[in-house]
Amino acid sequence: MKYRKLGDSDLVVSEVSLGSWLTYSGGVERSNAEACVRRALERGVNLLDTANIYGRGAAETFLGEVLREVPRKDYLLATKLYFPMTDTDRGLSRAQVKKQLDASLKRLRVDYVDLYQCHRYDSDTPLAETMEALTEAVKAGKTRYVGVSEWTAAQLRAAREVPGAVRLVSNQPQYSMLYREIEREVLPESARQGIGQIVWSPLAQGVLTGKYLPGRAPPRDSRAGSGTMGGFLPPQWLEAPVLKAVQALEVLARSVGLTTAQLALAWVLRQPGVSSAIVGASRPEQVDDNVKASGVVLSEETLAAAEVLLRPVL
Fold it and tell me: How far apart are CA 198 and CA 76, in angstroms?
């Protein structure tokens, strides 16, 4: 496993990190979920990402139980707030930052998290109030650093301009060979501010593993084949043109000694602004495959060939 600094912070994170969005909030059998977390730690993954909304606290509770005997120095914890936890508990107000962070710490069974993230931008709360609350959380020792998820370049700039507020060290956007929105404005703005990207869905929710075949039903044990996990997968990614392009990517990946997933992860990690790529796993073997992408350097020829294959479906 290779490691990178997370923005301008002193956190050094594994290039491949483990997420818990749909998998560990009830989508994956408990024994498999536990095995995946243990395998990730064995393979050098040190960043575990979660959020209070994942299973309404279930993912945090799960991680707190699985990690209770793991030395705290051996892993980094990142969690988030914003989405509704109850009819009245939502957003990024000062009261919510304190309430939700305390609740997350209790579920995770820790005294602090390494990174506390705003899951989305809250237009209903003054940005200054949010940034002041996050600053207070850092001063209280409840989080070492703060970050955001899916904020625009303009929102990142606005946060920087709040007087006396803690600086953001990370952004968590969606980024993959099939979804590249951050390249236009977010990556350049983040580079100017020293904000590192912890990207989610680098495998396009499993599509870029090559497991889905044109004209065939999704495997029952896959995300697309799951009634609980498949609802967030964009339908267009399962259409024949995309799946045929991914099958062509598989041939390209094999020609350079990689799996399709490893090619897709290495493609994301080629960006100097990307600190880590979050993967989800329902089986330990998937962890084994994904972590091998760390340290892979794709040639210009391979990158160009991938672009030719994907251009018609982008």
Answer: 13
pLDDT tens-place values along the chain, 314 residues long: 999 999 999 999 999 999 998 888 878 899 999 999 999 999 999 999 999 999 999 999 999 999 999 999 999 999 999 999 999 999 999 999 999 999 999 999 999 999 999 999 999 999 999 999 999 999 999 999 999 999 999 999 999 999 999 999 999 999 999 999 999 999 999 999 999 999 999 999 999 999 888 876 666 665 554 555 555 788 899 999 999 999 999 999 999 999 999 999 999 999 999 999 999 999 999 999 999 999 999 999 999 999 999 999 99
Active site residues: 54
In the DSSP assignment, the letter for residue 310 is H
Cα–Cα dist 222/216, whole Å: 13
Q: How many domains does the structure of the chain reveal?
A: 1
265 within some domain: no
Spatial CA neighbour of 173 closest among 212, 147, 140: 147
Domain that holds residue 287: 3-203+271-296
The model scores a pTM over 0.90 = yes
Residue 142 lies in a domain: yes
Residue 91 sits in a domain whose CATH number is 3.20.20.100
